[in-house]
Structure formats: C-alpha cells, structure tokens
Amino acid sequence: MSTHITTHNPVRSDVTSADGAAAVTVRRSRGWAVAGIVSGIAGLGTIASSMGINAMYDEDLIGDSAAMAEKLETQTGAMLAMHLFAGVCAVTMIVFAAGLHRRLRARIGDGLAAPVAAAGLFGTAVVTVMGSGLNTEFLFGLWDDEVVLDPSNAVFYAHWVATIPWVWVLAGLSGVAVFSASRAGAVPRWIGIGGLGVGGLTLVLGISPLQYMAGMTGPIWLLATAVAFTFGDRAFRRGE
After folding, report:
1. Per residue in 189-203, pLDDT tens?
2. Which of 92, 96, 165, 169 meets the CB 3.0–4.6 Å disulfide criterion with 38?
3. How far is CA 7 from CA 10, 12, 124, in A?
4. What percent of the chain clears pLDDT 70, i.e. is strictly above it?
5. Given this model, what pLDDT does residue 67 score?
6. Is 119 domain-assigned?
7. Burial (Cβ within 10 Å: 0-12, 13-18, ≥19) of residue 16
8. Cα(205)–Cα(199) distance, rounded to whole angstroms?
9. Contact call for residues 149 and 143 (beta carbons, < 8 A)
10. Considering the domain boundaries, does residue 13 fall inside one?
C-alpha cells in the first residue's frame, strides 16, 4: 500500500487570494512626497537668499557699476546659500515630480494631468538650476583678489540671480494639473483646491509681467502639496 501526500506552499501561508495563490502587498512609499517637502523648503530658501544679493538695487549706487560690484563682494554668503538651496531644490523637485506622476497615473491612467503635472515641475527644476548657473563663476571671481571682474558683468549677474530663480510659472501649471486630477477623483478634493488656488495664482503671476511674484507663491504651493501627500493621502496608501 502506498501513501500519496499533496502539499501546497504559498509564499505566505497565512495570506492567500481566492484561488489559493499568495497575495502580494504593495507598500506605497511616501519618500517622493518627503522629497517635495525638502524641495519646497529649499525653494523658499533660494528665494530668500537671492534677496540678499541686492547690490544693484542700492539707490545710493545707481549708475555706478563699479560701486555695485564692490558691494557685491560683501554678499558672497548670500550667493553661496542661494546656490546650495537652488541645487537641493532642483534635485528633490525632480524626485517629487516623478512620484507625483506615478501617484496620479495610479488613479487616472493615461490622462493628461499626470504628465502635465510632472512636466511643470521638471521645467521648474531646470529653470532653478539655470538660475544658479552663474554662481560658481562669480563666487570664485569675487573671492580671488587676482581676478578682475568687469563691473558691468557683475551687475548683470546680480540681476540674473534676482530674476531667473523666481520664474516658477511652470510649477503653477503643475498645481492646476493636480486640480484637474482631483476633479477626476484621483486625489483628495482639498489638495486639488490648493492646486487651483495657489497653483493657479502662481500660473497667472508667472504669465503676467509680475512674474517675480510667482517665485513667492510657487514654493508655497509645492511645500503645502508635498505635506498634504505625505500626511493626508492615507486612503490611497491604504489601497482604498
């Protein structure tokens, strides 16, 4: 007489699906959203530190490029801070953009909101890098007494860092895209309303001649949205 024993060994014997196959639990990470918090804070730091590079706005020095360049030498601390903040902001913004794209696609599939939201942030990251792109050249030039900088070039640099890092118009487009996704039920409605309010304001300001103002509202939208996805998107992380 022979004995036949049939065994079934799922990967998790305590968790099985209806047909007996092992169930797989997917962990929905919040790392991308935390990166957005870092980016938003660094974005605010970029704007704040760039305001410290203001030699060209000194009313007592108007028309005197040489004096402006000399004052700029006293503002290298703000220049260094702005460079570091901008780099961190751009790098972490790309991570947030990729995560936001994945998060929106999980609910709306191939809709336009996900790629538009990601593209707006990718574009803003590129602009931020460009805004800090001249820092190294002028920092070392101002630190090195043997290097003679053309005062007009130094003044141009000061105007550059006071302008380009503030161009957050494409982040406003991302905010509006998040609002569009909320209308399709992809994200909580309150996150979408924030995208329409602050993101929409950033978009309008950025398109208008008041584009500098977008540099104030854009990082606030990014920070608030990242905080919302980090701590307030619980239904999605639960798989509901």
Report:
1. 999 999 999 999 999
2. 92
3. 10, 14, 57
4. 83
5. 85
6. yes
7. middle
8. 10
9. no
10. no
Kindly state whether residue 157 falls inside one of the protein's structural domains.
yes
Q: Give the pair of three-digit tokens for residue 63.
A: 């028309």
What span, in angstroms and rounded, lies between the C-alpha atoms of 231 and 225?
10
Sole residue written with tokens 């929409």: 200
So what's the pLDDT on residue 225? 96
Residue carrying structure tokens 């007494």: 145
Report the chain's mean pLDDT, rounded to a whole number: 85
Total number of domains in the chain: 1
Check whether 6 has a pLDDT greater than 70. Answer: no
Contacts of 229 (CB under 8 A, 6+ apart): 30, 33, 36, 100, 103, 191
Which structural domain range is residue 174 located in?
Answer: 31-233
- The pTM for the full model equals 0.82
Rounded distance, CA 200 to CA 192, Å?
11
Distance in angstroms (rounded) separating the CA atoms of residues 208 and 201: 11
Torsion of CA 218, 223, 224, 228, to 10 degrees: 140
24 against 240, higher pLDDT:
240
Alpha-carbon span 4 to 67, nearest angstrom: 96
* Residue 25: pLDDT over 50: no
| SS3 (DSSP) at 225 | helix
Over residues 21-42, the mean pLDDT reads 77
For residue 6, what are the contacts with CB-CB under 8 A and spacing of at least 6?
none
